[in-house]
Fold each of these.
Amino acid sequence: MAKKAVKSPDEMSFLDHLEELRWHLIRSTLAVVIIGSFAFLMKGFIFDTIIFGPKNMDFPTYRFFCSIANWLNQIQSFTVIDSSFCGDEFPFSIQSREMGGQFSAHIWTSIWAGFIVGFPYVLYEMWKFISPGLHANERKNSRGFILIASFLFFIGVLFGYYIVAPLSINFLGSYVVSESVLNEFDLDSYIGTLKISVLACGILFELPIIIFFLTKVGLVTPELMKKYRKIALVIVLILSAVITPPDVTSQIIVAIPVIFLYQISIYISAMVLRKERRKAEKEKKANKNVKPN
């Protein structure tokens, strides 16, 4: 039996594109489910080591800030960094108040772990769907897209896990309005705080990739980004306030890498435009050299 001929993107109808997208989504979902199944079986490591790691005072981030706080407090006459990083344990406990709470948390945590670990493959499936609509030179110039985007995402995830999440847990877990109120957090609330910190940073660190494609389609220019740099700074501070506890130190710690990424994005946007201009000049010269019949 003859194989069905593969249609080019120009020959595909809208329904053909939807069918193609459906299979990419199915393969991405299967990858997430398979990886999530392995995460489900690794319950002890996922929860005791990773999820509840920032709850313990021996977490590397707390030890690092504690050592800095002790050093700065020795050479300064005032407290520079909060010494709560040096405590023995957090004054809160985690509980599950629903019959299926722990099982539900186990399922959803495994799915999110599958998405984070399988992010490069999900990105690959998205790229496979988009790339046929690009020109050959555009596919060539975007060859390292999956590698760079995955690298930035994982850097953001690590930043969220080791910086943003511990700062949030330390502040919110230690905050009290009265000694009469006990901090007993629900399991879903704790995992939700950790998840938002990790995923939000992973997405924020994709800023250079987003700017690259927005520049390619003509929606963003380096001049525009420089013009609205102050507004972007305010937006960055607002985003930092959303994903971190409401203290100035945490917001600054989160804002610094995002501002750095914004500056890198300006250079990336300028680089893309330079390449586009060179390409246009080469095509113009080539058209001039073509002699009319």
Amino acid sequence: MYEYIKGTVEHIGPEYVVIDNSGVGFQILTPNPFVFSTKKGNEIIIYTYQHVREDILALYGFESMEEKMMFRKLIGVSGIGPKGAMAILAFGEPIQVIQAIENEDEKFLTKFPGVGKKTARQMILDLKGKLHDVVPQSVPDLFTETLPDEQQIDSAANRELEDALLALAALGYSERELKRLEPKLKGEETTTDQYIKRALKLLIK
């Protein structure tokens, strides 16, 4: 079991990052790979979880230990697999998921791909009162973003949006949902990570 991997960010895809550690490239699935876009070529620490089944061997990675702990809590819930847990964590605000569980807010939880009423209820039954160790010590203001002033939307921004839509599709959102969402995103953000965060906020509303 790998606790974490320290290495250089070599590649970023819609579903994973590649971390070079002593000449070995580790393909690591992450909730939102594009949070590492500003760190490409730099050395980072990514907290990992190795998932083993008869037909799969996958390595999942997270920015923080709290995010990794939340992932482990989620996949322990009946009806939630690694892909479902990743879609929930891609929202980028674990504290809101925790609050929804503590407040028994099934409506909020069913906004995530693959989470129906039965699974939302199971999340509450299994996790309520058991997530105190997952809450970060310092929680930023929710839904607060600083956008660049007078940022020109050009072909580079369009590529960022396309990458964001690919990442959202990989999380399980349908083509119809993404087509409806795309016009709302254009002109709003300028990086793939920001597009994903903005899109997830709109999808969860």
Amino acid sequence: MTAFILLIDRYTELWGRLLAWCIPIMMAVTAGVVVMRYGFGAGIMAMQESITYLHGSIFMLGAAYTFKHGGHVRVDILYQRFSPRTRAWVDSLGTLVFLLPLCGLIVFSSWEFTAKAWAIRETSAESGGIPGVFLLKSLIPLMAINLALQGVAELLRNVRVLSGAPSC
């Protein structure tokens, strides 16, 4: 079980570290769009759309990384006072009742939407835009799968706490 938890954690950590590099790239592209538009009176649609792709990638694929590091919103008024064992119960129930069913719903409801985009290799509606809208739409089920994987790792970690095993 520990090896499985660590494997998922390494996978999530790798995604998070790769996505971190998208932030300065997105900032540079945004600055480039502004300079092109206001400095030279020109716009490059692919540059503008690439900001949306980078932004979507950071937020959608970074959700599992944020979850792993405890960065998602939670009501801490009572939680911070709970014992580690009570926190493990709360987190386990939250994962089982809310997180995993939500991830399943997102995958289920976005699968056909994404498959249709792939079937026609959906492209940008804008002239000169990025011909990869199907890739952007693929982030939806991929986000849910990554988040569910990290949810399973956190659930197993909580099971270890509840069983009295050393944490990993």
